[in-house]
Amino acid sequence: MQPQQNTLLETDLLKTFVTISETGNFTVAAKRVFRTPSAVSMQIKRLEDLLGRALFVRHPRHVTLTSDGEAFLVHAKDILRINDEALSRFRVPRLEGRIRFGVSDDFGVRYLPEILSRFASTHPLVEVEVLLSTSLILTRKFEAGEIDMILTVSAQSDPALGQLVHSEPLVWVGARDGIAFSRTPTPLAMSTHGCPWRAAALAALDRSGRPYRIAYTSETGAGQLAAVMADLAIAPLPISLLGEQHRRLTEKDGFGEIGSYQLRLQKIPDIGSAGQAFGDHVCESFGQAE
Q1: Which domain covers residue 51, as residue numbers?
Q2: What pLDDT shows up at residue 270?
Q3: Are strands 97-104 and 235-238 parallel, antiparallel or unpaired?
Q4: 144 with 179, same domain?
Q5: Which residues form the signal peptide (predicted)?
């Protein structure tokens, strides 16, 4: 493998490389950087072509760094850190303030660490106070003036519910080798009342005429997946939660499409410069800034 000449390392390629090194999986990394697995694979191929070295060893279900990959990881992290420091010093206003930010549990656990880390690197004087809860509770607190900004789940394409940040399909999920989906009535692991995709999932079952019973209830996707993993029930969940230990149930299994959900961002009118910057950062992190 011969390196390309007179090239520059793009930070997007470095971010993807570092994320894959941390997760050990192209598919998981793709979800974190908000790209498709094929796009991530193309990015790594470009990077390996630039360097003229193989960075990963491909295994059936994961990847590991080569010796060159381990050496390059140090440089990649340094370049990204210096890039963020330079932007913070010269391009980004030095903002100060406090933001009360509410986010739905499942998405906070999956996405917030990266979002908060990168925002803190460019705006170290802004304090972000985070509340993880259900979309229903967060909306109530937002309307009561207890939170400045919320990122909540919606099943409606209604701009009045806030700025669209992210959207993805909902799918039926069972254990990889499970049989819960074949039982009658179908045992379900559902979110609590008030969750937008609970209503959408039950409506899909009603349309198909499939009998069901709600066997387990949880406020979080993690709680639903626990019942799924034990093969005690199936659950309607975002497609991004599908893992190798899960099975996506389709019309061939007797389960029709549920639809999609949306993540929408709402901010108080007088959010201030710090709040506006954080809101923009959240949207940009999902790749759909308006």
Answers
A1: 11-90
A2: 93
A3: unpaired
A4: no
A5: none
